[in-house]
Amino acid sequence: MVKPCHADQKTRHAGVKPCRAYRKSCHADQKTRHAGVNPLKAGLITRKTRERVKFLIMANLGAITFFNRRVEKIPKPYYNKAMNDKNEVNPGFIFVDPKNDVAFRKIFGDENKKEILISFLNNILDFSGTNKEIIDIAVKNPYQVPKLKELKETILDIKAVDKRNIHYIIEMQVFHTTAFEKKVLYYVSKSYSQQLNRAEDYPKLNQVIFLGFLNFNLFRDNSDYTSRHLILDEKTNEHHFQDFELHFVELPKFTKSLEELKDIKDKWIYFVKNAGNMTMIPRELEEPKELREAFEVAKQMKWSKEELDAYDALGIFIQDERGRIEYAWEDGKEEGIRIGEEKGIKKGKIEGKIEGKIETAKELLNMGIEIEKIARATGLEKEEIEKLT
């Protein structure tokens, strides 16, 4: 009895009949293998045919993905979208949104995957290929699953130190909150001052670099999506005070498509802005390897229930905050219009009274009444009445 091929067993076990093309390939495979010949090398089965058969079997069996903590079946048409130029099937994934603070910290704040953070910082800060390039880094507050009860109060910024003792603060900010700029300066100055213990010398203080990814426009008069801020001499532009450095990436200003990405810096920014809307890793973002590893971390199916709960809870909080801000804005506009109308009416009444007094004064002047008497009758100043003559 001839043993059926391995793939035939799999499909029959799943209750799916193998396609005719596959049966033919199975028979050819059995005959040639019985004769000691590899059917692929003998040209009886082309590699393209085998890959096509593999695709058909996967399309019939279907696939599953973990999404929103439910197991759902991916529809068969999905596979047509997932085929790449090599006729290979790319599995579809749902990625978390890096703009969510929980996701941002898990991707970039994991001490066990710090090569992702190193590549991210080197390219965003333009350190790559310079004497400032980060070789190694230590995450001072490594990623931990935040507790739901403490989520709103949890500080989700990433703090790290490299081998030169330069301190980094990396933050993902979704909304432009009140006094955001002052908060940034406070974070930087606090990180700077906390480097010293009592009785230590000031020379031991090291540079602090802040990197903020913003989902809003902070500098409206500047069209660049990245900016670097230093303390410079107003007249000479000399950079004497080098211990504070602020970098910002304003995501709404970044509008490049995949085809327009020109360097790794652009790729990282594109990842942060758009990964949450992707179902597969584009070819343009498969390099560098650290970026691909970031995509692997961002796959929802690899997250625990506790992590997804925290991710969803923060997402709901963000939506609530966005709704609250939008409501306050609309309510403020309506209140401003109402107050403006009331002021306009009041101003109109006052101006109307003045116009009436002026008309009365003109009529009295035409009647030959003395200016002093007109002033007493209308309440207008003598100088105003004299201007009407």
Q: Could you characterize what this model shows?
A:
With about 400 residues, this protein is an alpha/beta fold. The chain folds into 2 domains: about 5-80, no CATH class; about 100-305, no CATH class. It is built from 13 helices and 8 strands. The chain has a 6-stranded mixed beta sheet with strand order 3-4-5-6-8-7, sandwiched between helices. Helix 8 links the parallel strand 5 (about 165-175) and strand 6 (about 210-215). Helix 7 (about 115-125) packs across helix 10 and helix 11 (about 305-365) runs antiparallel to helix 12.
Main pleated sheet: 6 strands, mixed
Distance between the termini: 127 Å
Structural class: alpha/beta
Helix content: 40-55%
Radius of gyration: 35 Å
Strand content: 5-15%
Q: For the largest beta sheet, what order do the strands appear in spatially?
A: 3-4-5-6-8-7
Kindly report the average pLDDT value. 74
**Element order, helices and strands?**
HHHHEEHHHEEEHEEEHHHHH
- Overall, the morphology is elongated
Number of strands: 8
**How many structural units, i.e. domains?**
2
- Put simply, the count of helices is 13
Q: Poorly predicted ranges (pLDDT <50, ≥5 residues)?
A: 1-35, 37-45, 52-92
Question: Can you give keywords for this protein?
Answer:
389 residues; alpha/beta; 2 domains; two-stranded antiparallel ribbon; 8 strands; disordered N terminus
